[in-house]
Design brief:
This protein has three helices and six strands; from the N terminus they run H-E-E-E-E-H-H-E-E. It is α+β, with helices and mostly antiparallel strands.
Length: 103
């Protein structure tokens, strides 16, 4: 039987408990204000909540549709949020749709 494994157990638990305490002492990356979640860029300054309208262009028949939110696009086009956000960042066409933000 390995008697050394019992000695190392306490060192491992102490290391984890220190890491957990350090993690819990850090401020949250998000701030909730008036029921809306803001991402905190600085400890004192939350990121402003910006709502974008999105134009979706169908490249087959050149139809443009303006959507108020990403959730509306998800419901109508059946495309995942992750895919829409990555397409908006890259600017490529996906399933014959082109996505553009309106500020």
């Amino acid at each position: 039987m390995n008697k050394g494994r019992l000695l190392n157990k306490n060192l491992f638990n102490n290391n984890i408990s220190v890491k957990v305490l350090n993690l819990l002492n850090k401020p949250s990356p998000y701030l909730i204000k008036d029921g809306e979640r803001y991402k905190r860029t600085n400890i004192n300054e939350p990121l402003k909540y910006i709502k974008y309208k999105i134009i979706v262009i169908n490249s087959i028949n050149n139809e443009e549709v303006i959507y108020e939110s990403i959730n509306e696009i998800i419901r109508t086009l059946k495309i995942s949020r992750r895919k829409i956000l990555s397409i908006l960042d890259i600017g490529l066409a996906y399933k014959n749709y082109i996505f553009k933000r309106i500020k």
